[in-house]
UniProtKB/TrEMBL annotation:
Organism the protein comes from: Veillonella absiana
Gene responsible for this protein: grpE
CDD domains (UniProt xref): GrpE (cd00446)
Subcellular location: Cytoplasm
Pfam families: GrpE (PF01025)
Coiled coil regions in record: 37-82
Subunit relationships: Homodimer.
Gene3D superfamilies per UniProt: 3.90.20.20, Head domain of nucleotide exchange factor GrpE (2.30.22.10)
Protein name: Protein GrpE
Length: 193
């Protein structure tokens, strides 16, 4: 073999080896690149799942906090209303003896100058009742009603054919409610044996 042919064979072999090496490097690089891309995609997917879980957890916490706050606000408003009702009931209960005295004065017989004085008392009584009713005070209607221990305080029993048994026949002292809550039961006579 001539030198030239040997050189051509060496060149061709070298070229084939280089080409094979380049192909191997290209295939290896593509495989590495594909693996890197695949690992990156998996990492992105994992990160997205973690972020989604965190978002859901924060959303749940936010909703729970919002519900807790709404419950707190509702409870606070209810407690405020109850406290207001109790305070109002206590103030109005303190005014009831004054109201009782007005009612006694209005019911007493009067003539002449006493009649004029009594008419003034009647107007004052009406004004006082209107003011108290504006704040939730209501008299308990008792005569002819079935006896209710929550609203009536029985002082005595009387026999009567006018009312069925356990019915209020007479009110001795008016009872009152404030916003539906009894602050003083009516003292009553009840029919029965």
């Amino acid at each position: 073999m001539s030198e030239e042919v040997k050189q051509d064979v060496v060149d061709e072999t070298t070229e084939n080896t280089v080409n094979d090496a380049e192909n191997t490097v290209d295939v290896g690089a593509e495989a590495v690149e594909a693996e890197v891309v695949e690992d990156t995609e998996e990492a992105v997917v994992d990160a997205a799942q973690v972020l989604e879980e965190l978002k859901n957890e924060f959303d749940n916490r936010y909703k729970r906090l919002q519900a807790d706050f709404d419950n707190f606000r509702r409870r606070t408003n209810q407690e405020k209303e109850q406290l207001s009702g109790f305070v109002k009931g206590n103030v109005l209960a303190d005014l009831l003896p004054v109201l009782d005295n007005f009612e006694r004065a209005v019911q007493s017989p009067a003539e002449g100058d006493a009649k004029t004085f009594l008419d003034g008392f009647v107007m004052i009584h009406q004004n006082l009742m209107a003011t108290l009713q504006k704040h939730g005070l209501a008299p308990i209607e008792a005569v002819g009603q079935p006896f209710d221990p929550n609203l009536h305080q029985a002082i005595m029993r009387v026999e009567t054919d006018e009312y069925p048994e356990d019915t209020v026949v007479e009110v001795l002292q008016t009872g009152y409610t404030v916003d539906g809550r009894c602050i003083r039961p009516a003292m009553v006579k009840v029919s029965g044996n």
